[in-house]
Amino acid sequence: MLKSWKLKEVVLMSVFAVVFAVVYLLFVQVGNIWSGVIGPIAFEWIFGIWFIVSIICAYIIRKPGAAVLSETMASVIEVMIGNAVGPRLILSGIVQGLGAEAAFAATGYKRYDWWVLCLAGVGAAIFSFAYGFLVSGYSALDPSLLALMFGLRVLSGAVISGLGGKYLSDGLLATGALRGYSISRDVPKKHKIKGEVIG
To answer: Which of 58, 72, 171, 175 has most Cβ atoms within 10 angstroms of its Cβ?
Structure first.
């Protein structure tokens, strides 16, 4: 899968995986605090944060596998640095990454508009919810609560990981830090990066 990748793309993905593994672990604590206020459904509001590395890496690198590989790597690192869920979290990361990957695959890896990024976040949310339904006993919950959880997770995936991932990536692009990566080829003419005019 990485055969056609450049070394700098693998390095960038690895750096993002480490950074977001830390972010993911921190947000577990945020979720725990928030759930103490409004209950377990609190996690659904912020669930999109746990998909964001897949959207960012796919948007920047634009190659098959970027979403699922980055999400898997982040989950492995998160387990290594202390997530209490343990190895099962890695399978969760793979599932989430596959959900995001499916959206990019559906476009033939040729479209990276904001709506495709949102769709990738939605895909990750749907895949993760289906996985949770199978392994976490969601079937025992009241259908109305289940529907609310699903709706919130899908919305969070679209907004936090989809739009949020685009915002963060575009911000990095504007600094010139992503010059030479696939994302930089789609910079519109006369778009300024660090005072330069591209195109």
So the answer is: 58
Query: Tokens 């990095």 identify what position?
Result: 172
Whether the Cβ atoms of residue 160 and residue 46 lie closer than 8 Å to each other = yes
CATH top class, domain 7-198: mainly alpha
DSSP-derived 3-state class of residue 51: helix
- What is the domain partition of the chain in residue ranges? 7-198
Q: What's the predicted TM-score (pTM) here?
A: 0.90
**DSSP H stretches of helix in the chain:** 7-38, 42-46, 52-61, 66-80, 88-106, 114-135, 143-156, 164-175
pLDDT values of the chain reduced to their tens digit, one per residue, 199 residues: 566 899 999 999 999 999 999 999 999 988 888 888 887 788 999 999 999 999 999 999 999 999 999 999 999 999 999 888 888 899 999 999 999 999 999 999 999 999 999 999 999 999 999 998 888 888 788 889 899 999 999 999 999 999 999 999 999 999 999 999 999 987 654 444 444 433 3
Compute CA distances 56 → 67, 85, 97, 160, whole Å: 8, 24, 12, 11
| Rounded alpha-carbon distances, angstroms, from residue 107 to 58, 97, 101 | 13, 16, 10
Tell me how far apart the alpha carbons of residues 170 and 150 are, in angstroms, rounded to a whole number: 29
Please report, as a single letter, which amino acid is at residue 195.
G
